[in-house]
Amino acid sequence: MTFELSSEHESFRAVVRDFAEREVAPYVAGWDRDHHLPLEVVRAMGDLGLFGLVVPEQYGGSGGGGGGDFTSLCVAIEELGRVDQSIGITLEAGVGLGINPILTYGTEEQKQAWLPELVAGRALAAFGLTEPEAGSDAGATRTRAELDGGQWTINGSKAFITNSGTDITSVVTVTARTGPQEISAIMVPSGTPGFIVEPAYDKLGWHISDTHGLTFEDCRVPEGNLLGTRGKGFAQFLAVLDDGRIAISALAVGLAQACLEHSVRYAKQRHTFGVPIGARQAVAFSLSDLAVSVEAARLLTYKAAALKDAGRSTAEIKQAAAIAKLYSSEAAVTATRVATQVFGGNGFMEEFPVARFYRDAKILEIGEGTSEVQRMLIARGLGLPVA
């Protein structure tokens, strides 16, 4: 039994880290300040193959005939997230929430139509599940789609949708009620009349990431834009979220790792009363505890990814994903608090990356299932009768 990544994965990590250090790190503070998503970086990520890691070669990916290596995707997300969380979530959402539903549930025609451009980084896709009154309770979806004359007419709204309003966003897959007791998934191309992208949110963190509310007013798309089986949209998206929670865990690991690295470096350089602050037991012990939590979060994340790659049971993957997401996201939030404290007054200054990490961290405990939802899922996995 081994808990180490393969030499191929570590070589790939080095490639992505080099990309992140060269193409993202020098510019990220300015992008964050200007709330600007650099689409040229998205395209460069596509050129590097990052959007195609889990996609078969026939659609432009590198995942072989049956699909790809989820562990490699997690490595890429971790390394991007180590430099900037917004760039990391752009990849995570672009693959996990944009590409994955089409790859998993789409017809061959839908895959051929949408995946090549998404894999190349020339386009982005989004996932419209959350609504103003339906977040953790996604089954409370109010958006409706009625079939009439071979077309779906969609009315409703979505909230907090990542990658939904960029200049290269090509399609958003939305959940909608298609009957009294059924929720289906329908693909809505950008620019469709009645599909309104609301102004970008003014967020606490993830300033570079593209996030909008969406409104649908008599928005009509062909009947063939149904994704997967009618009435199974809710179940499909719950399955998609299991994978997404592992990927979010990798994003959290990247953030925690960055906090550890920045804090150790600063603790060696910053002197008080004639000695480095890292010589102070309070600082040294805090960073020791942080190193333990980073290592634990990484092991939980890559265990879940390995189960996914091994094709283990849905129940086993769901439990591992919930455990990894819960622990890693909470560890990341704690890591930013520790790092900011180590930096002292400088930690409160935007010129230091830990200030950005502090702002970015909190959403990790909320997006793709809150910590409370993860605890509920874990309890259910234990066989407890949780409502």
UniProtKB/TrEMBL annotation:
Residues 7-121 form the Acyl-CoA dehydrogenase/oxidase N-terminal domain. It comes from the Bacteria. Its cofactor is FAD. InterPro entries: Acyl-CoA_DH_CS, Acyl-CoA_Oxase/DH_mid-dom, Acyl-CoA_Oxase/DH_mid-dom_sf, AcylCo_DH-like_C, AcylCo_DH/oxidase_C, AcylCoA_DH/ox_N, AcylCoA_DH/ox_N_sf, AcylCoA_DH/oxidase_NM_dom_sf. Keywords: FAD, Flavoprotein, Oxidoreductase. Pfam families: Acyl-CoA_dh_1 (PF00441), Acyl-CoA_dh_M (PF02770), Acyl-CoA_dh_N (PF02771). Residues 231-382 form the Acyl-CoA dehydrogenase/oxidase C-terminal domain. Residues 126-219 form the Acyl-CoA oxidase/dehydrogenase middle domain. The keyword Flavoprotein applies. The keyword Nucleotidyltransferase does not apply. Signal peptide: none annotated. Belongs to the acyl-CoA dehydrogenase family. This is Acyl-CoA dehydrogenase family protein. It comes from Jatrophihabitans cynanchi.
